[in-house]
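Two entries, shown back to back:
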Amino acid sequence: MTELERDIAAFEENQNSLEASAMGKWVLIRDASVIGTFDSLEAAAEHAVDEFGEGPYLLRQIGSSSIALPASVMFQLQLT
């Protein structure tokens, strides 16, 4: 299982409690652990970069449907 697959599995294991307590917020998952929830993608990404550098980590909006992106897609944030 890849790191991403473990992080997705961790999200799925915690999905019900996350939806009950933080619907609409963004969750940061790294090493199959929920690191925290944030009010915006930008806040979650900034925290992830500050704590872990380039990653990998999973950022997902709680309660939204997931979208599949090709592995070749790289999302780059410019944090100020």
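entry 2 starts here
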Amino acid sequence: MPSVDTTVIEREIKINATPETVFSFLTDPAKLRKWFVADAKTDPRPGGSFELIMSDPEYVAAGKYVEVQPPTRLVFTWGWKGDDSPTPVGATTVEITLRPDGPGTLMRFVHSGFTNDKSRESHGEGWTKYFNRLAIAAAGGDPGPDEL
């Protein structure tokens, strides 16, 4: 039986929008606010940084872009600001690959580097929730308010 890597979260989602549109929803602060965060600062270039303020402003995610290849690939470090975070800024890495799939996009997501099972599990739940919201927003819909 193959072993499962418990330090990684993997997701694949079909989105009814072009890779160009989906990529913009992952990097443009105004579009990030439509599905993911209350506020965002992004500098999507290798070495550029981002800061994402969640709907509860106590939670601020941040990191640096490692690879930025519009509209097919985005790699960045990820973590949470705060001294007590089990996943501090820069501790993990997110890789997103976008591939045309008919009229839409297949988004492959890999979040790696977790050393804490609880953090990996809570991130997995969060990504699932927010990717459902992304699919609605990128397709031109309104995902509604972010319910905590």
